[in-house]
Amino acid sequence: MLRYNATDSSEMLDYHGNFNKKVPYAKSELRFTEILEDPSLCNNMLQYRLHNERKDSTRFQKSRPQTFETLKQLVDRGVDVKLDIPQSLWDSPSLEISMLKERCEKLVSEYGEEIERWFFEHQDGTSLLDFLCRNLVLKDLPSECLDESMPSEYASSTESSDKNIKNEL
Length: 169
Description:
Layout (H helix, E strand, L loop, with lengths): L1 H9 L18 H9 L2 H4 L5 E2 L9 E2 L4 H11 L18 H16 L1 H11 L5 H10 L14 H17 L1
Antiparallel strand pairs: 1-2
InterPro entries: DUF3456
Organism: Rodentolepis nana (Dwarf tapeworm)
Protein name: DUF3456 domain-containing protein
């Protein structure tokens, strides 16, 4: 109920508070606030897994690493697998993944105004990746990681993920 009221209200005012000019919900201040205050924004980083077999930025991926996938298949077949970590923690986020979440929170905190500027002024012409990462965060640093091609299994899963992010932002 409240969301419907908020959506209707946001469509009544334009960006400057003028009546009779509707602002689409997807580009409204309400939507922007909902996205940034949504705890799942950076919590989604915890869905990623570290693929130690890779050395570039593609080592962070949502699928289970091949090593753990093979070990799980062995356990499912009844093989007694001994590791330094209990099986119950195999799918838990690693330290690196937890740090990824913390970095996301720090990035949103430090660059909140720039993200807001992109949302309201630049999202139709410039990707968030270019606007925020390439032009601001990594401005004077190497940014080749942004151009790395993704493995085919990752690329297909990120296409829908990219659409979801665009819809979220």
